[in-house]
Amino acid sequence: MSEANEKSGAELMVDLIISLDGYASGEGWPGWWGLEGPEYLAWLEEEGKKDFTTLMGANTYRVMAGLSQQAVDDSAAFSEDEGASLGGLADMRKVVFSSTLQEPLAWPHCELIRGDAVEAVRGMKRTRTGTLSTLGSLSLSRSLLKAGLVDRFRLVIFPVITGRTGSERIYDGYPDVALELVNSRTFDGRAQLLEYIPTVLEDPPPARK
């Protein structure tokens, strides 16, 4: 049995937004591929009010802290819904894994953890409550999944193919994983949420007779 299936104090969720062909972003494309709508942004705002602790690496911290502060300083740079979603990140509990960042971190409600992120999250699952949720941080998410620590795997798939411009291939380096669908939703008639319980596979399953 993987650790994702063992009883623990906190649940760990890998949370990703992707293009249909599995990229996290595309060169020249706007954020959310320009397809964020009011339903999706309202859902993001509601998710931000839940008992989540957000996990991220140093690169994601730098990008998201900058965007969150920009939403506060220059409201005209974003739509009202975008600004609320980005600005709300400042109030969430956040854990940043980094050996290069220095305390104190400028973004509010951030805890800096050095050392092995997988072992740190393993301990957090035992000692904390609520939901631990990744934000971006593709290598961190991959490592946590490989370690069998992930309880839920949640994707929001945007209806674009970025075969020429796509960057940050999400699934490279992943193990084989079986996924049990437990929730789905469509936002604004275009973006699709898919939520799974993952099981990391040592070998492919046998062929059905």
Describe the structure.
By secondary structure, the protein is α/β, with parallel strands linked by helices. 26% of the residues lie in helices and 31% in strands. It has helices spanning 38-47, 58-73, 80-88, 117-127, 138-146; strands at 11-19, 23-26, 52-57, 93-97, 110-113, 131-134, 152-158, 166-169, 177-187, 191-200. The chain has an 8-stranded mixed β-sheet with strand order 5-4-3-6-1-7-10-9. Strand 9 and strand 10 form a beta hairpin. Helix 1 (38-47) runs parallel beside helix 3 and helix 2 crosses helix 3. 28% of the residues are buried. Residues 1-6 have low confidence and may be disordered.
Summary of the model, kept short:
This protein has 209 residues and is α/β, with parallel strands linked by helices. Helices cover 26% and strands 31% of the residues.
Secondary structure elements and their pairing?
Elements: E1 11-19, E2 23-26, H1 38-47, E3 52-57, H2 58-73, H3 80-88, E4 93-97, E5 110-113, H4 117-127, E6 131-134, H5 138-146, E7 152-158, E8 166-169, E9 177-187, E10 191-200
Helix pairs in contact: 1-3, 2-3
